[in-house]
Design a protein that fits this description.
Region (Disordered): 16-69
Order of helices and strands: EEEEEEE
Distance between the termini: 80 Å
Strand order of the largest sheet: 1-2-3-4-5
Biased composition (Polar residues): 16-37, 45-60
Structural class: mainly beta
Shape: elongated
Number of helices: 0
Oligomer: single chain
Length: 126
């Protein structure tokens, strides 16, 4: 075919590995300079894990995994893009209070009910 400019698919892959983290990103794209049409598909995968310490004193471990993908198809008049993401996060708190678990809630008129008893201010150690 003479008179047509065609660029075949271009593919790139980038992988980053750090302490407690991993990222893999791949992209495939094409373009036709004659018509101005183009397309691109990108997929990203990330995983991370580590310990954390919040300002309020809570600490623990956190693991996260995320997948995302983007597909964009367009020409000189505009484009259409579709984005999709899935994420899974697991957080485990260290129990800073030993074995003490206190259950309390507000009854609606300002009073706190705690543990098993109603109207008592008992703290129960389990």
């Amino acid at each position: 075919m003479s008179g047509y400019a065609y660029a075949g698919p271009i593919s790139t892959v980038k992988t980053t590995v750090g302490q407690g983290s991993y990222e893999n990103k791949s992209q495939v794209s094409f373009s036709d300079k004659q018509t101005g049409s183009y397309g691109r598909a990108t997929a990203t995968e990330k995983a991370s894990t580590g310990n954390f310490q919040w300002q309020n004193g809570k600490s623990g471990t956190r693991s996260e995994y995320k997948e995302s993908s983007t597909v964009r198809i367009g020409d000189r008049s505009g484009y259409t893009e579709v984005y999709s993401e899935q994420r899974v996060r697991n957080v485990n708190f260290n129990n800073n209070n030993g074995s003490k678990n206190v259950i309390s809630y507000d009854n609606g008129d300002g009073g706190n009910y705690g543990g098993y008893g109603y109207g008592h201010d008992y703290d129960y150690d389990y």
